Amino acid sequence: MSDQTPREDGPTVPDLTDQDITGQFAAWLGIEFTEVTGDRVVATWEAQPKLHQPYGIVHGGVHCSVVETLASIGAAYWVGDRGQVVGVNNNTDFYRAVREGTLTSTATPLHRGRSQQVWLVETVSAEGKVVARGQVRLQNLYPDS
């Protein structure tokens, strides 16, 4: 991971190698994080048969899961130790069927407010073609409120 340093303004989250933040499901999907900040999350993953639907292409639910995972991690990193985040809406569009190969997904925030965040996640093929694009709305939860 290229950026595991705490945010300069204080809050931190657990190291992303800790499955408390990434989860066993993300590990099962094969998501490899290459950049994680409160402003951007980038990860690669492989389209492979275990992720296929019956027609031999990556299942749409896998794309939704990758979108939700990256958005949640970016949002959690931004909130830091002030609270937690939970996804409340995931809208993912599928543009190109993929059977195999390396995919790169990038999450960036569209809105970060006191109570909610909205993150956009775009997945591209090794050839740079957009495969899927999703938007996740997350609720910020603060334990002291």
Structural write-up:
The protein is α+β, with helices and mostly antiparallel strands. It has a single domain, classed as Thiol Ester Dehydrase, Chain A, CATH 3.10.129. Helices cover 21% and strands 39% of the residues. 32% of the residues are buried.
As a percent range, the share of strand residues is 35-45%
Low-confidence stretches: 1-14
Question: Helix count?
Answer: 2
CATH C-level name? Alpha Beta
Calculate Rg over CA atoms: 15 Å
How many beta-strand segments? 6
SSE order in H/E notation?
A: HEEHEEEE
Whole-number average pLDDT? 88
The CATH architecture can be given as Roll
Largest sheet: 6 strands, antiparallel
**Oligomeric status of the shown chains?**
single chain
Question: What is the helical fraction, as a range of percent?
Answer: 10-25%
Which structural class do you get from the secondary structure elements?
alpha+beta
Report how far apart the termini are: 33 Å
Strand order of the largest sheet: 1-2-4-5-6-3
Shape: elongated
- Could you tell me the CATH topology label: Thiol Ester Dehydrase, Chain A
Q: Kindly give the count of domains.
A: 1
CATH superfamily: Hotdog Thioesterase
Task: Provide the fold topology.
Elements (H helix, E strand, L loop, with lengths): L18 H11 L2 E5 L4 E7 L12 H20 L4 E11 L6 E12 L3 E9 L5 E12 L4
Antiparallel strand pairs: 1-2, 2-4, 3-6, 4-5, 5-6
